């Protein structure tokens, strides 16, 4: 009855972050893997078209928000539960940008999807074999 998508496992494999629309809006959650345990809402303003990224130490999650910023949320294990920090806006991007976190977690790679120029019309030729000279 709802979609769960774009899972990303924490570096230690103990948690999985994923997008779900089970609350009526696309939200980012973290849950213990393989369980047991509840799910923790990380963000309700994210862009579910992009997977969240874990910091290499597993203590932070980065995601693209709907206002076109890259946000970070601290994740702190407390006994058998997780303490979820408040989202912090890191920087703005455009709607055409995509991003990746570097392996060391210290840099972001930003890319831009180029605007496609208008293409020339395509001519489709059918029954072309019959037009070949034998």
Salient structural properties:
134 residues; 11 strands; mainly beta; five-stranded antiparallel beta sheet; four-stranded antiparallel beta sheet
Summarize the SSE layout with pairings.
Blueprint: E1 4-9, E2 15-20, E3 27-32, E4 40-43, E5 53-54, E6 60-64, E7 69-78, E8 81-84, E9 88-92, E10 97-101, E11 108-112
Antiparallel strand pairs: 1-2, 2-3, 3-4, 5-6, 6-7, 7-8, 7-9, 10-11
Which structural category do the helix and sheet elements fall into? mainly beta
Helix content range of the residues, please?
under 10%
> What's the average pLDDT?
85
Unreliable spans are none
Query: Would you list the SSEs in sequence order as H and E?
Result: EEEEEEEEEEE
Q: Which term fits the overall shape?
A: elongated
Characterise the protein shown here:
This protein has no helices and 11 strands. The protein has 134 residues and is mostly beta strands. It has strands spanning 4-9, 15-20, 27-32, 40-43, 53-54, 60-64, 69-78, 81-84, 88-92, 97-101, 108-112. The mean pLDDT is 85. A hairpin with a 5-residue loop joins strand 5 and strand 6 (60-64). Strands 5, 6, 7, 8 and 9 form a 5-stranded antiparallel beta sheet that branches. Strands 1-2-3-4 form a 4-stranded antiparallel beta sheet, with no helix packed on it. The protein is elongated and about 80 Å long.
Give a quick rundown of the structure.
With 134 residues, the chain is mainly beta.
């Amino acid at each position: 009855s709802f979609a769960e998508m774009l899972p990303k496992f924490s570096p230690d494999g103990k948690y999985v972050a994923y997008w779900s629309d089970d609350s009526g809006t696309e939200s980012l959650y973290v849950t213990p893997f393989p369980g047991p345990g509840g799910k923790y809402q990380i963000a309700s303003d994210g862009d579910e078209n992009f997977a969240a990224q874990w910091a290499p130490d597993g203590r932070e999650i980065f995601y693209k928000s709907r206002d076109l910023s890259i946000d970070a949320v601290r994740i702190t294990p407390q006994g058998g539960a997780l303490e979820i920090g408040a989202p912090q806006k890191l920087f703005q991007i455009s709607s055409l940008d995509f991003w990746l976190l570097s392996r060391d977690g210290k840099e972001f790679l930003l890319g831009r999807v180029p605007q496609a120029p208008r293409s020339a019309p395509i001519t489709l030729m059918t029954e072309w074999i019959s037009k070949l000279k034998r």
